[in-house]
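Field log, afternoon session.

UNIT: design team B
ACTIVITY: writing a sequence onto a fixed backbone
BACKBONE:
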């Protein structure tokens, strides 16, 4: 049986390879635990100068957490909730925060699908390198969740309309738009990614500036042909800058003669109403929060999604049975009142996420 994640040390470079290409390198709990453990070890190892994280295969860096496996195991244990549903997200968010504060250069080669949990283990690092194969999305509202793993914080730092659009619709964007939004630090064509990795290893850089100097030798400007923002940015900002889901729906509905906005509106109508409302509140809050505080908020939210939200039903409908007919409760945005939304943000007391630098 092959290792789900491979750790190698080469000339002072620690390399993490997510190794489930048949599952688009989706993260399991054991992978999260192992990455946490190795990063802790490498951070205090004077022989390690920097870290590279990559995905096996040529399709995906990491398409998210393996929520199908998580759901199966939690249900088998009589939940939700269970110890696993609590510890999986606790340790995953701890890992995301660790990466954001890592004391050595952390270089993410996101050469393929980068979604959900894959965003959390890559885009908080010091260097995020995308290619023309990169496809970014935070599609969690489709499965009764919200942009987590610190993704809500990343989106919350963007223009409020763009952030809400990416959060609520789960829109997929590619390298040109990622660079424009500063969600990545560099663009390198896929044919040069292996050469870049090899030069990083042979050079073993021990500072962010030295890493920049190496990546700059391979970086270029991404093509504009896959951009959604070039033609639609102002439309998106106008429709998604509101602070209630009802207003966003109304604005999209008024503009259904516009093909692009009609597609966004149709997408919105299929998402979990509860997820839409908590996600919008989340990223609006995130705009003035630190990543640390935002992750603590996310942990409160995710535990509520497991206990009283649509998460397990969303995973069933979209990823297990694949009937694409989730039974959202409630199934209409106008039935998700402020009292219900606020439940997802209540502190958990002694069970809150604790993060240390």
């Amino acid at each position: 049986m092959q290792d789900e994640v491979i750790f190698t040390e080469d000339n002072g470079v620690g390399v993490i390879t997510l190794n489930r290409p048949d599952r688009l390198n989706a993260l399991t709990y054991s992978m999260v635990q192992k990455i946490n453990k190795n990063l802790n070890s490498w951070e205090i190892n004077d022989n390690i100068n920097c870290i590279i994280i990559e995905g096996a295969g040529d399709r995906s860096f990491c398409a998210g957490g393996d929520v199908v496996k998580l759901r199966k195991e939690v249900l088998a244990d009589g939940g939700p909730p269970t110890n696993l549903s609590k510890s999986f997200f606790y340790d995953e968010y701890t890992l995301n925060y660790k990466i954001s504060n890592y004391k050595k250069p952390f270089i993410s080669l996101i050469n393929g699908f980068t979604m959900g949990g894959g965003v959390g283990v890559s885009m908080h690092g010091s260097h995020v390198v995308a290619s023309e194969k990169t496809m970014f999305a935070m599609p969690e509202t489709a499965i009764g969740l919200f942009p987590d793993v610190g993704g809500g914080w990343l989106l919350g730092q963007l223009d409020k309309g763009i952030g809400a659009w990416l959060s609520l619709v789960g829109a997929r964007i590619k390298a040109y738009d990622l660079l424009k939004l500063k969600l990545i630090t560099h663009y390198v064509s896929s044919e040069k990614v292996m050469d870049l990795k090899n030069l990083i290893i042979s050079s073993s850089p021990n500072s962010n500036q030295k890493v920049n100097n190496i990546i700059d030798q391979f970086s270029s400007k991404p093509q504009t042909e896959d951009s959604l923002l070039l033609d639609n940015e102002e439309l998106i900002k106008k429709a998604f800058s509101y602070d209630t889901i009802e207003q966003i729906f109304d604005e999209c509905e008024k503009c259904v003669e516009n093909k692009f906005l009609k597609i966004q509106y149709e997408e919105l109508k299929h998402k979990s109403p509860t997820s839409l409302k908590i996600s919008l509140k989340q990223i609006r809050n995130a705009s003035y929060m630190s990543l640390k505080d935002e992750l603590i908020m996310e942990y409160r939210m995710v535990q509520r999604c497991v206990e009283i939200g649509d998460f397990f039903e969303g995973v069933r409908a979209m990823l297990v049975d694949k009937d694409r007919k989730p039974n959202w409760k409630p199934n209409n945005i106008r039935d998700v009142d402020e009292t219900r939304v606020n439940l997802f943000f209540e502190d958990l007391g002694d069970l809150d996420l604790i993060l240390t630098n």
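LOG NOTE: The CA atoms of residues 274 and 336 lie 6 Å apart.
NEXT ACTIVITY: expression trials, pending approval
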